[in-house]
Design brief:
- Strands 1, 2, 3, 4, 5, 6, 7, 8, 9, 10 and 11 form an eleven-stranded mixed sheet that branches.
- It contains four helices and eleven strands; from the N terminus they run H-E-E-H-E-H-E-E-E-E-E-E-E-H-E.
- The N and C termini lie far apart (155 Å).
- A hairpin with a 4-residue loop joins strand 7 and strand 8.
- The longest helix is centred in the N-terminal third of the chain and has 34 residues.
- The protein has 241 residues and is of the alpha+beta class.
């Protein structure tokens, strides 16, 4: 009986010893397992972490947008170029030096024309001309323009006279000369220029010293141009009523 009790006590002591001592071994073994990491093959599917914020962005090519320029032809509005001639003290000297002054001219007035403005005259444009002999200013409106192959223009205009009647004016404007006539209530005036310098005179006064010349009839030389033949292929613009 004592022997059986001794075995029970020994068994209890053994179980107690195992109970208090065994968990430490398990914990140690667990810690050991955690310290030993399995070897990983570095050559198998390595993932590279890319810094998206600092990585260069791919260049994007932007296709040029095709634009079509459309040109709208604007209709030219009539111009008022104002006075086309003014008194000039040097005009006579210029004309004499150039050798273009008419010999039988009389009661003329020397002026300076606005040649550049007159070269731009189109149908519907208006301009003013003051007759120096009478100091009367008359307004004219262009009604027709004929353009010749050499670039000269024949400009036809309707003049409003002081008598409230309409008169006519016609002039030829070239690159370096102007000549024509201007009809108003006080008479018919003719004008001519060399460049921008010219003269204006009443047609009736020109006849005072005019010398008639008897023309000698002769056949034109071969290949010569007949100066009195009508111009060919003119471009005409008229004002529509």
């Amino acid at each position: 009986m004592k022997k059986l009790a001794f075995l029970l006590i020994l068994s209890c002591i053994s179980v107690s010893y195992w109970f208090f001592s065994k968990p430490n071994d398990v914990i140690e073994s667990i810690e050991t397992v955690q310290e030993v990491a399995p070897e990983i093959d570095k050559n198998v599917n390595q993932l590279e972490v890319v810094d998206v914020a600092n990585s260069p962005k791919p260049e994007m090519e932007i296709a040029p947008v095709a634009t079509k320029k459309s040109t709208v032809k604007m209709e030219r509005l009539p111009l008022d170029i104002g006075e086309i001639a003014s008194i000039s003290e040097e005009a006579k000297e210029v004309l004499v030096e150039a050798g273009v002054l008419v010999r039988d001219i009389s009661e003329e007035a020397y002026v300076e024309f606005d040649l550049a403005a007159m070269q731009q005259l189109e149908v519907g444009d208006t301009f003013d001309l003051t007759i120096p002999q009478t100091t009367e200013m008359h307004r004219a409106e262009v009604t027709q323009v004929d353009i010749f192959p050499n670039g000269d223009k024949s400009v036809f205009a309707q003049v409003t006279g002081s008598d409230n009647r309409f008169h006519n004016s016609v002039m030829t404007v070239g690159s370096n000369a102007i000549y024509g006539q201007f009809t108003v209530s006080s008479g018919n005036y003719v004008f001519e220029s060399h460049g921008k310098h010219g003269w204006i005179a009443a047609k009736r006064d020109l006849y005072k010293n005019h010398v008639e010349h008897t023309p000698v009839e002769r056949a034109p030389a071969e290949g010569a141009k007949d100066l009195f033949s009508p111009p060919i292929k003119t471009q005409t613009t008229r004002k529509e009523n």
